[in-house]
Amino acid sequence: MLDIILAGVGGQGILSIAYVLDYAALSAGLHFKQAEVHGMAQRGGAVQSHVRLAPGQIWSDLIPAGQVGLVLAVEPLEALRYAHELSPEGWVVSSTAPFVNISSYPDLSGVIGQIAALPRQVMVDAASLAQLAGNKRAENMVMLGAAAFLYPFPPEAALAHIEALFQAKGEKVVALNQRAFGLGQGASSIYREAVEAGLSAEQAIALCAHLHPGEVEPGAAARWAGAMLADPSMPWPTERVPATLAAAP
Amino acid sequence: MKPLILLGDEAVAQAAIDAGIAGAFAYPGTPSTEIFEYVERHKPSDRSIFTQWSSNEKVAYETALGMSYAGKRAIVSMKHVGLNVAMDAFMNSAITGVNGGMVLIVADDPGMHSSQNEQDSRFLADFARIPCLEPSTQQEAYDMTRAGLALSEQVGLPVMVRIVTRLAHSRAAVVPGPRLEQSERPLPTDKQRYTLLPSNARRHWSQLLGRWEQVERGLWAVEGNALALRGEPLGVIATGIAFNYLMENLGDAPEASTLKISCWPPPMDLVRQLFDHCEEILVLEDGYPLLEGGLKGLLNSAPRPVHGRLDGALPRTGELDPAKVRAALGLPARPAAIPAPLPLAGRPPALCPGCPHIDSYNVLNEVMAEAGGGRVLSDIGCYTLGALAPFEAIDTCVDMGASIGMALGASKAGVSPAVAVIGDSTFAHSGLTGLLDAIRAEAAITVVLLDNAIVAMTGQQDTALAGERLIATLTGLGVGPEHIRVVKPLRSRHEENLAIFREELAYQGVSVIIPSRPCIQIRN
Fold first, then answer.
1. What part of B 334-373 touches A (C-beta under 8 Å)?
2. Which of A142, B56, B265, B284 is the most buried if burial means most Cβ atoms within 10 Å?
3. Are B106 and B29 contacting, i.e. CB atoms less than 8 angstroms apart?
């Protein structure tokens, strides 16, 4: 059972994430309910969707406060908007790339710090990873991938429904979005391994920026983390290097 | 059959298609819009289903009634405040009755996510004596729409299906039933049946009240109500979607007796059984406390204490959710990762970058500042966002079309300039009549008629009146052609537009300025 709040700004593709989760859940034999926001709020306002996945019957379309297992946010300020609904064991998986369409947008490092203060979190730069996949608009699929370690179905089920979602737009668009999903998965595992190895959230974000999340080997991020902790003044590679054991210090 | 993933709105629409409707009618309004859209996009190839966005909800209702009169099944869908517009037709259709099955789907918006009030349509069903079904799940939305069309033919009345935002806009798997043939009933030959002259109407009204118990029995036979007698201290009645919030918490209150109610009027035999079994009653309604108030009675004379929105067990306003119901059950709140919402910058909706309304408001704000007084009476649509910073350009937003009538009234009370701001679709919906009155009154008002060629706020539906036909209509209503001013709302035309707005605001009669540029979302 997993209760998810999808968070973002109108136009960021929250409902496409929801589409993939819904169909992947159904194909895995799970029950689901997914409440979303239409209408006025979609005009550049804060939007969210409640996605509930469970092996048996689900009653409420809304997730009870305090029972959210995952806040999956395409935007960091929007991740914080639902933090109080997280269960004590809940995860926040958020992009670090801000969507600034309000004059009162707070200092970004403060926002990142507030997310880092939550019990369990993953932060990836969805904007640069989407760019790496081939299109800035694939930020939503990056984030879908970044939280894949928590889904009650295998990532292949998500990839199959990414294909279904984009097939009308052609093979290239399908491949791009599947690539974005994979990069999100890779960056997420780098972040988690780095934090596990003792890096701060900010350091883990910095490490993610220097490793290529397309090629991730278990243990590589931990090796980098160890090196960083041993020598904080260690020079960074100028280009992303593979997150492989061979390429690690 | 294979399950389909459907919004509550879409489940209603799929059910109507499968139950053999010949027509679907609506005016867009959140959270009901997707009902009509789904029918329009999923018409089966083996049959003809007529669909049209109507000019307003009253026309939509009457069109469905006409189709039903002619012997075919039809649905009409609208948001709760849309039913106010259709109210005359709605009330009287209970007196005429129907021929082919007719279901009205009303999507209420408790909590006002996208509305100007949170009125509860069950009151109107009760008022009209029209039976109402209230599903709690997407599957029930499907099943009850089908059952509603059959019930409508069985009892000879329109049937209301009431859903709320959280069901309308939530997806789940729905298993559809077999698709029925489009049935056809003979055209009525009894002219008195549908002609509400007082002599006929008196008779029909008495007949309706006389057979009301039979109507109720038909309604209560629809699957959806369920009584579960458990412990005696507490009995909980939950209507519609509120039942889900109850069940979400029942694991922590397993002794509570429960009654699920999915219709109005409520199944009173089940209510009585619960009252006989339990010492106290809690009523959960995602809407106004209609059942709760009825059970209490004006003299607070219920045989058991009744709790709910009226005595503070639940908040008096807003939509219910699992946490509110949990508190009403006396259960402690679930612990959360952090105790309270973080204080964060809000992110309200805003006009899209490049929106033509931005340029219109920039001009309007400047000329209103120059005029140094006056008021801008506005209306319902994307342009209502002009109320928010940075524009803060409008002074009112009340109901569809109110801008023009209110500008007329305000101008006759001495407000100058009195400016109405209204979109092309809202004008077609309910602005025409107000403008006709303003012309007859020779009022000094300026109507800024924002023509973006689409119904934008609800997601790009066709508009009934835009472009050349809009101008021809204005001329036909009697607006002086020299005071119909079409402008292009662009930053590069700002100075030119300022001059035109100044001229028309100074004119002591009815003038209409049409900032005309397609919605920026159309290309998407």
1. 334-342, 344-352
2. A142
3. no
Instruction: Compute the nearest-CA separation of A103 from chain B (Å).
Output: 9
B321 and A104: CB-CB below 8 Å? no
Alpha-carbon span A30 to A57, nearest angstrom: 9
Which A positions 88-107 lie with beta carbon below 8 A of chain B? 88, 90, 101-102, 104-106
The CATH architecture annotation of domain B226-328 reads 3-Layer(aba) Sandwich (3.40)
Q: Say whether residue A168 is in contact with chain B using an 8 A CB cutoff.
A: no
Sheet hosting strand B280-284, strand order edge to edge: B226-228, B257-261, B234-239, B280-284, B306-307
- The reply to whether A36 touches chain B by the CB within 8 Å rule is yes
Q: From the centroid of its chain, how far is CA A211?
A: 17
Helix A126-133 with A171-196: angle, nearest 10 deg: 140
Sign (positive/negative) of CA torsion B116, B117, B120, B123?
A: negative
CATH T-level fold of B4-220: Rossmann fold (3.40.50)
CATH superfamily of B356-515: Thiamin diphosphate (ThDP)-binding fold, Pyr/PP domains (3.40.50.970)
Q: How far apart are CA B385 and CA B348, in angstroms?
A: 10
User: What's the angle, vertex CA B56, arms to CA B55 and CA B61, rounded to 5?
Assistant: 115
Q: What percent of chain B has pLDDT over 70?
A: 100
Identity of the residue numbered B83: L
Give how far B171 is from chain A: nearest CA, Å: 5
CA B114 → CA A38, B110, B137, B381, B422, distances in Å? 9, 10, 21, 11, 18
Pairing state of beta strands B132-133 and B159-164?
parallel
- Tell me the two tokens of residue B254: 């397993």
Task: List chain B residues with CB under 8 Å of A59.
Answer: 244-245, 247-248
Residues 137-176 of B with CB under 8 A from A: 166-167, 169-173
One-letter amino acid of B495: E
Q: Using alpha carbons, select from B173, B80, B323 the residue that is nearest to residue A62.
A: B323
pLDDT digits (tens, 9 = 90+) for B225-239: 999 999 999 999 999
Distances B402 to B406, B421, B454, B474 between C-alpha atoms, Å:
6, 10, 20, 18
Whole-number pLDDT of residue B11: 98
- How far apart are the C-alpha atoms of B168 and B180, rounded to whole Å? 24
Q: Are strands B23-26 and B74-79 parallel, antiparallel or unpaired?
A: parallel
Average pLDDT, chain A: 95
Least Cα distance to B253 among B261, B241, B265, B245 occurs for B245
Q: Which of A50, A78, A87 sits opposite B336 (nearest CB)?
A: A87
Structure tokens at A60: 């409420």
Contact B244 A102 (CB under 8 A): no
Using the predicted structure, report yes or no on whether residue A40 has a pLDDT greater than 80. no
Can you list the domains of chain A with their CATH numbers?
Answer: 2-185 (3.40.920.10)
| Residue B216 identity (one-letter amino acid) | E
